[in-house]
Amino acid sequence: LYAAFNTQTGEVLGKTALDLFPEDLGRKYYDDDMRVIHSGEPVIDEEEAKPLPNGRIGWQVTSKVPMRDAAGQIIGLVGFSQDVTEYKEAQQRVNRQERLAAIGQLAAGIAHDFRNLLTTVILVSQLAQRKLDAPDQVSSYLENITTEARKATDLVQQILDFGRRTEIETRLLDLATLLGSVAAVLVRTLPENILVRTKIDAGQSVIH
Hints:
Layout: H1 9-12, H2 17-20, H3 23-39, E1 43-51, E2 57-68, E3 74-83, H4 85-131, H5 136-164, E4 173-174, H6 175-189, E5 206-207
Antiparallel strand pairs: 1-2, 2-3, 4-5
């Protein structure tokens, strides 16, 4: 990606990386150059390049190999860089998708276990309602537990369906009925000194 620096051949002849690049980057390139010249071993680096014209960070793979004369003595080095920005971005997208898939599987497993717990809550509440000779208020509490647990189970099922990308069944929702059920829950759970009132205008209150 050295071409990204808009340098001409005449501008780089006789100069080192310290002359052509910012200090920190130039020092790294210079050290790589010296390592190749002194060791005779090639160097391959993958690194971020300067921001591209659109503001994105580019990536390049730089390869440097020693240049020898007829006697085999190292007299310099040859280096070239390859733009691998598109490859790196594609790789990063794949990595993100894999992480999201793993998170989705974990969430689905948790949701499945949570649904099983809610099923137990529902069953125990129903058994208690049938077997206990409890006052009406206690029976009302148990019914509330059962109702809310069923709603939570439906919500968990929606999460599972969304994660599996299955076709979700849609139904009409009556807002008046929903508001009435919410008000009923509040009446049973709030202190007696708090009065709950609902005002529902006449007319259509069903949404898709």
